[in-house]
Amino acid sequence: MTDRAADIDILVSEVGPRDGLQSIKAIMPLEAKKAWVAGEAAAGVREIEVGSFVPAKLLPQLADTAELVRFAKTIPGLTVAVLVPNARGAQAALEAGADKLTLPLSVSETHSLANLRKTHEQVLAEAKAIAGIIAALPHGQRPHFEGSLSTVFGCTLEGAIPDAQIARLAEGLMAAGCDEVGLSDTTGYADPSAVRRLIGLVRGVVGERAVTGIHLHNTRGLGLANALAAIECGLDTLDSSLGGIGGCPFAPGASGNIVTEDLVFMLEAMGLRTGIDMDHLFAVRTQVAAALEGEPLYGFTPDAGLPKGFSPAAAQREGGLA
Ligand code: ZN
C-alpha cells in the first residue's frame, strides 16, 4: 500500500482526470487539467490518478499524461498515480516520474482482449516485465506497483467470473511482482455483500496486507453502500471521481465513478479523516464544471450543502466527540 499519513484514516484517490476524462468526448486542455489537479491537492486530496499511458490515438483525451505527471510532481505531498496498460507505458510513466503505477488485469478474458487486446497470460507477462523495470531502479526511486483486478464483480460480456479464476489471477499478479492487488468494479455490478465476499476471497489468496484499495462505479446507485462495505472490511483506499465523471468506454453501460464530494462527506460525517476540506472541494467542482461545459456532473452534497453545524472528522476528535 501507499504510505499512509498518520493524520488521515482513509485515502481518497481521485481518478477523475483519468477515468472521468477518458470516457467523455471533450478533450480538456492541459491548463484546465493542471488547475484541477492543483485545486484538489490544495483541498487536501493526497493521491490523484492523473492519466493513462496508452497510445494517444486510442485515448486522445489523455495524450498529455506525461506533461501532467511532470506538473503534478511539483506539488508537495501529492502521490501522482497513473494507469499503465503494459511495460512500454510503465517505462514512459517512470520517465515522467509517476509515484504509483496501476496495471489493469481484467478477470474476464473476453474483456481483457477487448480492452488491452491481451490474454491473461500476456497481461501477467507485462506485469512481470514492469516489476523487473521497477526492481532495476535504486531504492527510494521505485514507484508503488498495483495490479488491479478489473471486472472482478462481473463482466458485461461474460457475466460472473468463477472464483477460482479470480484467485488464480490475483495470485499471478503478486507472483509477477506487484506490491498489491486492487479490486475494480469496472461495470458497476457490485453490491455490498459481493464486496465483502470478493475482498475475503482475494485476501485469502494474497494476504490481508496486499489488498487495501477498491475502485467503484455508481452505475446502479450502490456506489456508497459498496464503499462502506469495503471500509468495514478494513480497506483504506477508495477511488472516486469529482462530480462522478467517468466510466469505462470498453464496458457498455458502465458510467460514473463514485462521487468524490459525496464520498468525502460520508467519511468525514462518520468521523473518518480524509484530510480534505469540503468547501474547497466544492470550489474545485465549480471550476471543473466550467472547464467541461455541457458535461453532466453528479453528486448530492455539493447542491444540498453541508448540514447545519457540520463537524468534519478532525474537529469531532478535537471536540472529543469521536
Ligand atoms: Zn473505472
Structure description:
It is globular, with a radius of gyration of 18 Å. Strand 7, helix 9 and strand 8 form a beta-alpha-beta unit. The protein has about 325 residues and is an alpha/beta fold. It has helices at about 15-20, 30-45, 65-70, 85-95, 110-115, 120-135, 165-175, 190-205, 225-230, 260-270, 280-290, 300-305, 315-320; strands spanning about 10-15, 45-50, 80-85, 100-105, 145-150, 180-185, 215, 235-240. It has 13 helices and eight strands. It is about 40% helix and about 15% strand. The protein has one domain: TIM Barrel, CATH 3.20.20. The longest helix has 16 residues, at about 120-135. Strands 1-2-3-4-5-6-7-8 form an eight-stranded parallel beta barrel, surrounded by nine helices. Helix 2 (about 30-45) runs parallel beside helix 3 (about 65-70) and helix 8 (about 190-205) crosses helix 9 (about 225-230). Zinc ion binds near residues 19, 186 and 257.
List keywords for this structure.
322 residues; alpha/beta; TIM Barrel; eight-stranded parallel β-barrel; 13 helices; 42% helix; 13% strand; binds zinc ion
